[in-house]
TrEMBL record, chains A, B:
GO terms for biological process: tyrosine biosynthetic process. One of its GO terms (molecular function) is prephenate dehydrogenase (NADP+) activity. Keywords: Oxidoreductase. The keyword Oxidoreductase applies. Gene3D superfamilies: 6-phosphogluconate dehydrogenase C-terminal like domain (1.10.3660.10), NAD(P)-binding Rossmann-like Domain (3.40.50.720). Residues 2-279 form the Prephenate/arogenate dehydrogenase domain. Signal peptide: none annotated. It comes from the Bacteria. This is Prephenate dehydrogenase.
Amino acid sequence: MKTIGIVGLGLIGGSFARAYKAADETFVVYAAEQDQSTLQFARLLGAIDGELNRETLGKCDGVLVCLHTELSCQWLEANAPFIPASALAMDCCGTKRRICELGFRLARQYGFEYAGGHPMAGTHRWGFKNSRADMFRGASFVVVPRVYDDVTLLERVRSFVMPAGFQRLAVTTAENHDRLIAFTSQLAHVVSNAYVKSPTAREHHGFSAGSYRDLTRVAWLNPTMWTDLFLENRDHLLFEIDQILGELRQYRDAIAAGDEKRLWRLLEEGRRRKEEVDG
Amino acid sequence: MKTIGIVGLGLIGGSFARAYKAADETFVVYAAEQDQSTLQFARLLGAIDGELNRETLGKCDGVLVCLHTELSCQWLEANAPFIPASALAMDCCGTKRRICELGFRLARQYGFEYAGGHPMAGTHRWGFKNSRADMFRGASFVVVPRVYDDVTLLERVRSFVMPAGFQRLAVTTAENHDRLIAFTSQLAHVVSNAYVKSPTAREHHGFSAGSYRDLTRVAWLNPTMWTDLFLENRDHLLFEIDQILGELRQYRDAIAAGDEKRLWRLLEEGRRRKEEVDG
């Protein structure tokens, strides 16, 4: 797969473009981007070869839609008829149920192949200016295929995305993806954003180290993008927020009661869980 | 200050010993450590010059007590009569009200100088085996002096601890230290430990990136040490836990209600706070 169309030159789309061109000069990358100066800049940098339009879209082996869910859906609706039947189209949306349902339906209708995707990488910053050729180095790429055990498709996905630097693929369903991402990513953003709201935050300089820095890093988020992602994944995210609220209340009660044994047990359970899961 | 006594060769005491010897071979470091093999090992490594006992304690210009609060109190009670009047003694406990009250009283009684200390550095690992000469590089060292604006004392503290690699001193009261640390460090450990308890944690591999890793890093804590620190700082920590519980409930309610505007506003407020505080 050597001719790639990228829709949206933000943090993710921009990083894909840079990564392909850095990996192998023979990749041809076309990009669609509303902001004309970003498009020009990316072309001057050599991150893309030209604009993605109906004509160049027709030459693509692979198409990566790297917009927020709403805009990704709109782009697919409008452009599905022009995606070649020989191409594999994928999105990079942070939640997968809505976009995959649409992508699978349009793929059946117009004859191209479709799979949902989600690179497990990023930063709390956004936009092309923060994109990097090595953004995906060592990360995993989550794939949501139409048919779970379609080996041929998986090989196509592999040859499509691995040159961008990923270390491995993880295959799952849209439902399972959204359930897991509510915990690994969405809850982290909610907690981090809530953490920094303590009035004490304003006085932390000189009194903080790695734990404060780590807990609040992703507080600095894009509110519009995350509002959409959270509301789209409301069921799973509410489960996780309720979960941590319940857990936090247990520590709170043990501390309020001065119950040393109970507090120790709560902390030891958390330590043990962390060790089991990541040790 | 060239002859230093270190009480306890754990993560912090061990790092101080290594840091002094790495900074300047003319430092003479004596250490008290219950675990004889750690003591031997530290001597073989050249991290210490010998054992801290009543005789060598009498030669020290500076004494650093690097044990948990309870043991630090016990050590000070037992050894205060043998600390030379010319010496500056400090502790490195994670909470400061109890230890400073004792240290200040003993210092008045026996004639030596005392200040509370707290290096703003560490890792979630513990013990001498995880100590490092560069642990404090670039970190701040919090000082709790007996008299807040005692310039002479501050100069002594500076010449005592800065060779270990700190970038700056922060001066405060024990009360204010404990209030701030409840937010910057203790709450982070509670939240992280609670976070990893979601049943979803067991399935995160391949579906997580930096935000999960950062949020759960300090879940892997020493339950005994943190139980003591949390209970000693109960008032301030409860304030912070209640604070984040209240904030989290707001996101929860906005998400449950599908209230896009309210959710956006909550996220934007958090983003703005993070920017104000750390931008």
